## 1
Amino acid sequence: MSRLSREQWASAALDALSSGGLAAVAVEPLATRLGTTKGSFYWHFGGREELVQAALQLWRQASTTSIIERLESGDAPASERLRQLFTQVFAPPARTDADLALLADADHPLVASALADVTEQRLGYITALFRELGFSPARARRRALLAYSTYLGQLQLLRTAPDLLPKHGPARTAYADDILAALLSDQPAKRA
């Protein structure tokens, strides 16, 4: 049996969190699932809280930081980066389950802190895109809040009434495009 890495443990913890909430991040079941012992866990972590923190950091990287980095790696204009962002977040990746689970456990101090940090990172990025499109700082922040509120509303619909949302393909793209069109409906004219 090969030794598991810290990242493999964190990834398994994030998978457990995504499917069963914070309560599912338990060392013994994870060790069994990974085909290892609790000793492997204690080689990398001082306790469950440290594992939860590592899983939350992995979630932040996968669900926010890497998406922003990918969008910023090209030379697409802000409107296209917003469209790509909306198309991606309104066609949920696997990590959307983690967002749902974390929102359900938002009263836990570690989760609350991670959610606050990620929310601010996401809002900051969306605000910056609206600023690039010519919105004043205050209007850009309001538009970002509206966009993010729409995302959170979609997460709630995924939990309570998933059949209301378009599943994939052209209908999903049209849904994202309609949201973006509403958010850009009174975009300031570009200055030459």
Note: The chain has a mean pLDDT of 90.
## 2
Amino acid sequence: MADKLEFVYVVYIESAPEKIWTALTDPGQTAAYWGHSNVSDWQVGSQWEHQRTDGSRVAEVVGTVVESAPPTRLVTTWAEPGTGQEAEPSRVTFDIAPYGEIVRLTVTHQDLAGEAERDAVAGGWPAVLSNLKTFIETGRPLPQEPWTMP
């Protein structure tokens, strides 16, 4: 079997680690810039869901909290719901490192099944994290959802 792939993205945000942590884990804030609510109690071993905000609360991504060290590190598994036990989930790590008045947020999405999955996350994470940066720094997301741009 081929080695699993990973995607790493780094963004610098004028903020404090606590604000970044809250923006990643608060359902209302994730809904504002991500278009989905991240729902969990964020305790190690707990389940988390990436739920639609259209009122249906349908989870489009599910996983388990692997590591939770507020406000500097969050690690979760990442899978499509209903994929069964045969599919191995990927893993997403959020590392939040303060430096003066800015924060370096590094997102590492690893254990990707192949090039198609890597291409999908390579198109998604930059859009989501750009929207997060704008949301944190201005109090509002970008005027258009960046992931819908052709």
Note: The CA atoms of residues 51 and 59 lie 4 Å apart.
## 3
Amino acid sequence: MTNNKIVKYSKTKRSVYTEIIINASIEKVWSELTNFKEMPTWSRSLQKIEGDFIQNGHTEVHFMDHKGKVGVYKHQLKYFEEGTLFGWSDPFILGITDNHKYQLERISDHQTKSIQSDEVNGFATLFMGNYIMDFFLKSYTEFNETLKNRVEKTN
């Protein structure tokens, strides 16, 4: 059973929520999730993060789209808790604000819930909201599954 979903709050505000249970410690999942050097070998979306990987750090986030083109986005890490959380809330495209988080929750010493969520706001959401959120849902679900496979394979 999955709780992956898109919620439409208004014409200009939507969110996507994805989660997966990984059979590994939270420390192991965090280590793999933040191993940006190896990430391009297993992730087809998030390729790497460069810069100051700390609270309020300025970063460049490299994402690959479904056509194989890598876009680089500058983000400030507004959300950061070592070992459990990182994310940003910055303008994305056409004035849409992207509020993206990667979060880990300890279930037990050998199980971790990995949550990837996003919220978009902005006028262009009226026209592009469905397309963006469908793409995010598919991309985040795939990322979560490949992260799970990667961690459990190396566990």
Note: The helical segments are 26-33, 125-154.
